Amino acid sequence: MATGNDVREIFQLKASDQQVRRVQKTERKPDGISRELYGLIGNNVSTVAFNNPTYKPKLNVPKKAVNWTWRPFVNPSRDDDMILHHWEKTRTDPNEEYRFYKFNKSINLIGFSPEEYASHLKDPDWTLEETSYLWDLCRRFDLRWVVIQDRYEWPPQEADRMALQYYNGNNLVISENGGADAKKEGEDTPMKDVTAGASDSGESSVKVITTSAGGDTSAQAGVVTTAPASGSMPTDSTASTSKAVATITPAKTRSMEDLKHRYYAINRILTKIRMSDASQAVEKAQLLSSMAYDKTREIERKKNLEILNTRTPEQIEEEEALYLEARRIDQNEKKITRERENLLRLLNTRDIYGPGGPTSAGLAGQVGVAGVGGPGSGIIIPSNSITIPSSSPSASGVAANGGNANGPLSPSVGKGGAAAAAAAAAAAAAASAGAAAGSTPKKRKKAPKGSVDSAPPTPTAPTAGANAIKGSSSSNHRRPSNASDGPGGPSTASAILPPPVVKKEKLTPGAYLRSQKMTPIVSTKQQRVQSALVTLGLPFKPAMPTATVMAKWDQVQSNIVTLLDIKKQADKLESDLKVLKMRRGSVGGGSGGGGSSSPSSALATGVAQKEEEKGELNI
Amino acid sequence: MGTYGGDEVAALVLSVGHTWTQAGYAGEDTPKSIFPTSVGWVDLPAEADQGDDADNSEDTQMQDVTQAGGAASDNHISKKDADGGDVPLQPVGAGVVPSKKKITKRGKYYVGDGEISCWRPDMEIKSPMKDGLIEDWDALEQIWDHAFLKRLRCDPTEHPLIITESAWNTREIREKLTELAFEKYNFPAFFVAKDAVMTAFAAGRPHALVVDSGGDMTSVVPVYDGYVLRKGIMRQALGGDVLSDQVLQQFKANDVEVTPQYLIAKKSPVVVGQKPNVVLRDRPATPSFHKMMQMRVLHDFKESVCQVAESTYNEQNINTRPQKPFELPDGYNFNFGADRFKVPEIMFNPKEFLKNPTPEQENFVGLPKLIFNSAQSCDIDFRPTLFGNVVLTGGNTLFPGFGDRLHWELNSIPHSYKVKLHAPGNTVERKCGSWLGGSIMASLGTFHQLWISRKEYDETGSSIVNKKCV
Description:
The complex is a heterodimer. By secondary structure, chain A is mainly α. Chain A has helices at 4-10, 18-25, 35-41, 114-120, 128-140, 145-151, 158-168, 176-185, 201-214, 216-226, 239-248, 256-274, 281-290, 295-309, 313-350, 358-373, 392-400, 419-439, 447-450, 460-473, 488-492, 523-535, 547-587, 594-617, and strands spanning 68-74, 83-89. In chain B, a hairpin with a 2-residue loop joins strand 8 (129-130) and strand 9. Helix content of chain B is 32%, strand content 19%. Chain B is built from 17 helices and 22 strands. The radius of gyration of chain B is 23 Å and the shape is globular. Chains A and B meet through strand 2, helix 6, helix 7, helix 9 and helix 14 of A and helix 4, helix 16 and helix 17 of B.
């Protein structure tokens, strides 16, 4: 085909510079690519990126590969020289001892000879054969008691016995002969598993027949191996009959405790016999203590464990509830004690407002009763209005509660304070209380709390009071105390009357509202105080708050608070009384002696007094 | 190598269960070969004897079968003729009494999944196992042959063999197995291990309460430090087959025929719940074959549809669960709701959910009760350990939710133990638990002292197995 160049040549024109481009265009197609493909991709830049695949770099280990050889080896743990093969590094020594030989360990069981058995180890419940059977099992199962107990069956099935003897080899002292025989003849001895053949009993009976018909050797083997069991099992001349006997006699099993007991007992005896040397005394004692086994305790333990594990969910729930209840009571006890202390403190403060009328007398009696409720618990009522003529009506109660070594008895109520008598009584009380305090020095610490505002003249009295309170909170309260001191002593010094305490007026710095001087009432009690005020026909706030009115007002309010507290106390006591009554009812009249009955009677009087008071206020 | 204590001696591990046989090499994590334990058997007419002997192929085997009235004790290893080529025959041991009456039967055995699921007019299907015990020794030999020669294709004289057995296996059977291994196959060493112990071993637990729910049976076996506690073995014949049977009954009650695949020539899709539109093949088969094929369909049904309620069975709750569709081979399909929960519920509450029970089945108890009873029969000090190591194994436990439910049930029985359930999530591990344990154990260096060697067998006889394998 003629091109532009040919034309130019013909016309002898100069060749154009197009030539250069043309050369570029006619780049030779590389070999190996078809024309069509080259036409497609040609000079163009290919859209597909050609990346040479990057292979994972070859593992470059400087060491040469280790050679391994398939090699026979003998395991020295085995009795026979069985040869197995395994792969081993070629460079290791082929004659090296088998690597796992060192793991072949067995336990050391203290053996015994028949002579030793005869002289030391006899037990009416065990025979020599059975004991040695137990020893076989112990050795076979390395003292895994769970397994031993599971497999224990006396007399053992023939096959079991032989298996054991085979395993234990000749190191067993007692049944050496039997074991050897079994080993010799065991080859042809039929294994009859009579109990295991429960599903195919027909088959086993067939088997017995074939055995007896079969050969003399097997029959002999049967006799030989059953011979050691002759002590407890009748042997017969033919294997089949002895087998039959074995099936009829129920196999005896023993509990794990039995087995362990026997094992440890024998071990203890053997240790004692064999370690008679004095130099080994310490070691011996250690060994013996490690072998201690208390069978009855173990049985008891397992029984209890069983009970523990078979509780129904309801029982567990109930137990938990009871536990919670017990804890609550425990905690409440502290709380009650604290409340009582508070109450007493309250009574202390109340008294600054002057003489209590019959109400306060009732109060005192009430508190006294609270004290009487506990043993050895005289509660001292530091109240002006109360004196203690240990008169005959209260004497019974005092006597009944008597013997309060810890403190003077609480008072019965007397009206009209005779100061002198009170002082004398206080002195006496101080004496006895001092003794009491001396006997319980720890409690002294508490005393000041209870007597913050008490005056110095009778410092021991509040201490005694605190003591008494403590006594009331002691764990064994509500039980009549044992009248060890006799009734006389305490009744003489039965009350302490601290002198009236003057409340110090707080001086608030700076300006203040007069209402701040009002004694604040605890917010929880406010509601009830107000309702009490309503019943008394009083307004919540005094209409004319003069100083005198406010003083009275304060007094009324604090009286109400005290009253409410006491009412609470009374309610508690009432319920206590109910419980006591119920208890007395259940105990019966027989035990209703002076000691047990009088606290409740005293309580009753207290409650009665309380009720009087209630009646007054209609709360 | 020393750190993990392994020492491979190229041992073979064989585990013949009721449904599946697993065979492989020790030290591997999965059996090389898993095939059904059931074998096919075709009677051959007596006159065809001579001709058949000649053209005996490799796949089918010709046998002189000793039949002795069904008594397993009397028929021992049968003599092999014809094709015993690559297996050197040993004279039968002196201790074995030859049976007197002998009925010679000619027939062909078919072993392996492909062989037995292939339709043949007169092929009977039978399993050598019953109640976890070996009943049909000829069939068992076929299975061993198939496993070692066809599947693993190894020379038995070169490898030690470890097999698993049920915890309640009898002495006679173990002795026969030993005889079989040494006399017929010439293994250099042999060991029999309890499957429960092996399962515990595979789970890495020396103490365990092994709950094995398989095809024909559910068993609970306490294991203490590698020893089975015989007094605690609890078992009942409530397994996957019973469940399949129940499904079949359910279908029948709804007037649905379960037609296995081998009968179907042509089918076309139908609407949900409608009668199938199917053309059947004319393939007369034995009832046992038909049953097996039906069971496969039902097995498929159980696998793809059934589920266990996580806590108690609550009909209202169940009805809110999504339904699952399932299509039978003939095209019939349906959405299954509550029914799919009812089937596995039998395992937990057989009294209520097992329909038309046989007298034997009426005494079945729920699995939790079975477990509890088993633990109760052990020493009280050992019980907390047992409850803390409950190991779940067997194909029948693979229903979704089975483990959760069992855990829930075990906790709701009053006791004060802490229950810990070990159920491997891996399906293979759950199905082949005992094989796996055998595989681990036989590759341990410390195990090699326990083998029964050829020499020991020659010295003591087959009773050695009862002495060495406890």
